[in-house]
User: Fold these one by one.
Assistant:
Number 1:
Amino acid sequence: MTEKFHPFPKDFTWGAATASYQIEGGWDADGKGLSTWDVFSRKPGATFNGETGDIACDHYHRWRDDIKIMQQLGLKAYRFSVGWPRILPAGRGKVNEVGLQFYDELVDALLEAGIEPFLTLDHWDLPQTLEAAGGWPQRSTAEAFVEYADVLSRSLGDRVKYWITHNEPAVVALMGYSMGIHAPGARDHGLFAPAAHHLLLSHGWAVPVIRRNSPGAEVGIVLNINWVVPASNSAADLAATRIGDGEWFRFFADPVYGRGYPTDAVEHLTKSGFLPNGLDFIHPGDMESIAVPTDFIGLNYYQRVIVRTDEQGNDPPLIERQPQTPEFWTEMGWENYPPGLTACLGRVAFDYQPRKIYITENGASYSTPPDESGRVADVHRLNYLRSHFIAAQKAIEAGVPLAGYFVWSLMDNFEWSRGYSQRFGIVYVDYQTQKRYLKDSALWYKDVIEKNGLDGAW
Ligand code: FCB
């Protein structure tokens, strides 16, 4: 272990990330249409305590103050998402000018504060009208997405120069359509692949549209990645590890980088009944569209996953990894494993040769509240971030083209099916008063940004 200063490259993009449904609230404000999350969160049993994003952090009304916080932290960039149903309440067709104006003003204020906007078009809050017509498993949803990307990039493309099409399409396809624990709550394995395909296809179709409307813009997609390792060297564990990685990562990364769907994953999906109609949703030219060159890939990394099967190759029994302390386990039940970040970055850089990588999300859930003086001593989060920053710097040293790092999240927010029970923010939000408190991790992050590096042991 050595204590040393870990410098980051000049112009490294230090940022923080949020998503529209998780922070905005204003669920029916100013002509906004319903999203799948507005509907899903109201279903009995869908979310922790039946909580919804109706109000969330009330960012829709408090965004000016939130930008002041970003400025105070010295953030170089802010990754946020646009609520599609604010812009096109019915998913396509008539534009809601008031909704558009919200993001227009937000972008202007960010630029004025010297903060680069990174805009995500789809962070899961699909217009309910499109879901009612079949949602992502339908090709028409991909067409609607292009219309939305066109409207938004025509209006903001002169100022927004970093565009992300989708956030974690794997989570939408698997957790939303196949497992039913996210919106829209479908439990149909047969919907996974068509949903995945149309998410990817809409990405491929939207990229040239965004480039046309926003000259000089950089466009990419965000994928979730875990460091997935087998519990043992047994053939079954190795096979299960590869299957997991195939469905959650390569099924998305491979086509984006021009390799089509991975054959081993397709084989496994076929055997498991996930492809009742084969690959009939792929039309001629689709795979070429999906493979459109991108300027960067965004990776969301949180944890290592250890895969163990039983002898029949069935689902892994829970692995008890020790020690079960908050230092090693976040409150999400996710393992704190910084070397996994170095490994994932190296793996993606080597396997796919992206032009640039951003860590578009990384962070930890710990509920530490403010003390009487208002201080939030979130030492576990601070240590989590510190060790992951160092892990990222290791990857840079090894030649990974990592251009920036977005902490998840700027502030505590609505954590999907887990409601408000999980706090990922570097800023604490008191949901009763909507008061914000800078946690120790935020103050420390400010210092890292200022120095463009950090002290720490490795
Ligand atoms: C990611 C999501 C993000 C947040 C974090 C904890 O999968 O993209 O919205 O919920 O997990």
Note: The chain has 15 helices and twelve strands.
Number 2:
Amino acid sequence: MYSQHVLTPGKEIRIGDISPDGKEFYADRKKAEKEFKDVRDELISLQNKFYADGRHKLLVVLQAMDAGGKDSTIRKVFKGVNPQGVAVASFKAPSKNELAHDFLWRIHQKVPPAGMIGVFNRSHYEDVLVVRVDQLVPEAVWRPRYQMINDFERLLTSTGTTILKFFLHISKDEQRQRFQDRLDDPEKHWKFDSADLEKRKKWETYQDAFEEMLNECTTEHAPWFVIPANQKWYRNLAITKAIVDTIKQIGPEYPPEESGLEQLVVE
Ligand code: AMP
Ligand code: MG
């Protein structure tokens, strides 16, 4: 199901050809919601084993336009997992100190150590997205970053990290509705940032930057998924399933137990 959303290295996509509409991939919302709960229960028990095993590392990268659903994906997909084994890192505009280093410096510090699932809410990809669109550095600086990112991710996968990268794909109209919801609901005002409206004006330029990022940084070791994300229920199901199947492939095991436990009685 979600496997149809993974990109193939060397096979270029056009983002405009990919539907953001989850309904095209899954007709029955009620069934999807039920399936999602079951798959999330599976994630909870697999993550328990993953943490206990303590040998593997999983990195989940989330990128999207504003209001694309990164925060709510994290909230929904990881609801109920042992918080001790999952670390979320949110990357905002870099500090002066971060800018004084290479762009991967702050990222590398947040990659998951053994036993952990790391979730990136935005990531090193901002350095070829907002940085490119807002011309924060010249092209001669951002363009070589695709290769640097591929090399960096190769370093991670070669040293035992599995990487899952999800682009949450929404339509321009869906973004409009979500911004409007934020304005209409006082409980959501804190999420509204008028700077987001300026970014919305550059929608096409952003889509071009996402498209090139997806094509340039889909590798054998770390391909991108383009997740249709207009429907949250489909997005949650597709992402959770991809994570669950990936952990199953990794195959975490409980560590070997001490011998003679059967005879022990606690007095
Ligand atoms: P939010 O995710 O809504 O909290 O917003 C975080 C902001 O930080 C977004 O506007 C991002 O574009 C911005 N941001 C994240 N990484 C970078 C970066 N490397 N350079 C410039 N801006 C960034
Ligand atoms: Mg924001």
Note: The first helix runs from residue 29 to 53.
